[in-house]
Automatic annotation (TrEMBL):
Organism encoding this protein: Nestor notabilis (Kea)
Upper classification of the organism: Eukaryota, Metazoa, Chordata, Craniata, Vertebrata
A Pfam family recorded for this sequence: Ras
Gene3D superfamilies: P-loop containing nucleotide triphosphate hydrolases
PANTHER family in the cross-refs: RAS-LIKE FAMILY MEMBER 11
InterPro entries: P-loop_NTPase, Ras-related_GTPase, Small_GTPase
UniProt superkingdom: Eukaryota
Protein name in UniProt: small monomeric GTPase
Top-level EC class as recorded in UniProt: hydrolase
GO MF assignments: G protein activity; GTP binding
Catalytic reaction(s) noted: GTP + H2O = GDP + phosphate + H(+)
Amino acid sequence: ALTVRFLTRRFIGEYGDMEFIYSHNLTMDGREILFHIWDVPNSQEQAEEGSSEEKRIQWADSFLLVYSICDRASFNILPLKIQFIKAAKEGQSQEKVPIVIVGNKRDLHHQRVVSSEEGRLLALSLDCGFYEVS
């Protein structure tokens, strides 16, 4: 849903568990930037497909990992995913891989189970960026 919102400026309430690759041109500061976004929903099946996940990691130049502030499990898997990404990407070069952690559903504060502080601390401890959005 965040990807569709970024690409179209529209919000979609229901979003399936489909994997898509999107391309999008954006002009920033007078420069044209071409994004290729591999949108991968998280599932238990994918967690077991190590080679598929490694292929996606090798394909990407940066990572945006999204969790729901209303779902502790989606937050708890982030450290392992980030360690996997860093091992795969940074092991090949000395360059730091750009990773941003995003807490989604900020508007559902009454259902929050993961605090903003927890998100910020995790990002700080893993040397990642951090945002909360709704």
